Amino acid sequence: LQEIHVAMASRKTSHQNRVNGDKYSVLLPTYNERENLPLIVWLLVKYFGESGFNYEIIVIDDGSPDGTLDVAEQLQKIYGEDKILLRPRAKKLGLGTAYIHGMKHATGNFIFIMDADLSHHPKFIPEFIEKQKEGDYDLVSGTRYQGNGGVYGWDLRRKLISRGANFLTQVLLRPGASDLTGSFRLYKKKVLESLVEQCVSKGYVFQMEMIVRARQLNYTVGEVPISFVDRVYGESKLGGNEIVSFVKGLLTLFATT
Amino acid sequence: MTKLLEWLFGVSLVGAVWALVTFDLLDLSLPQTYREVAWPMPLYLLVSFGCYSLATVGYRVATFNDCDEAAKELQEQIKEAKEDLRKKGLKM
User: Fold this and answer.
1) Membrane-spanning regions, if any (chain B) (predicted)?
2) N or C: which end of chain B has fewer CB within 10 A?
């Protein structure tokens, strides 16, 4: 009986979504994600399918030598060319331009950005969408620092650096969002377009700049607690270089926004 | 106004009030006790802000959620996904 209820509920929501015409384009910039790409796509298809929202997945591969693009082409055959779009580029060109490149071909009026390495779980996608609708937010940001949000696979040092950096940023910039360096977010397409145009930083700082500029331009920001499961395959990095570039970026934003 | 300017403005405002009271710049002939309380005030503020920061960051590190469940769930879904994708004809 419960199954019938669930089935009816999902049919109902999918009907509603067809009526209101919202479409969600997921941008997945990849570099050497041959292992992870099929898994993230499978999960996206699962959760979008269950919740009944209209969607497409845009894979922006920056010339990965490991054959990520081959895998992406296979996935396109399995799930269809209307669901998986391939927009490869010849070489690694940075996150900001990847978003611009991906958005040119996006047919959705909303854009999801997330990491393709499985640290962001697609199960949160329905929560992002509900949150967005709840307040007609311009941007909904996933946060590891509030509610049931959290991390997996971080040692004490990593937690201390993360919390310390976050506290310092909150004090200096008062950005009105609790997770600035996270990169699991839902944007209205127009909002993302105007933000990407203005942001110049790289790496961690790019995500931070996006949300700080959003606040500066009076865009509204909603937040959804997410769990962040650190890279299952591949390795994650937080060395001295990342910290130095973070501090530089923070001070730049402090002086210019 | 940039955040930097906001901070400079705030700090100079507090600094000005502090100097007015400590050195009695307006000749208000304030009681001696006012001055005695005022002059070490910047140091007190700094120390209490430092303590507040340490306590806050310490508390947040200690209460940072470990999402063991999420990691376990993901591992199971990865197995499920691999099996399903193989059936659908994906060559990894």
Assistant:
1) 43-62
2) N
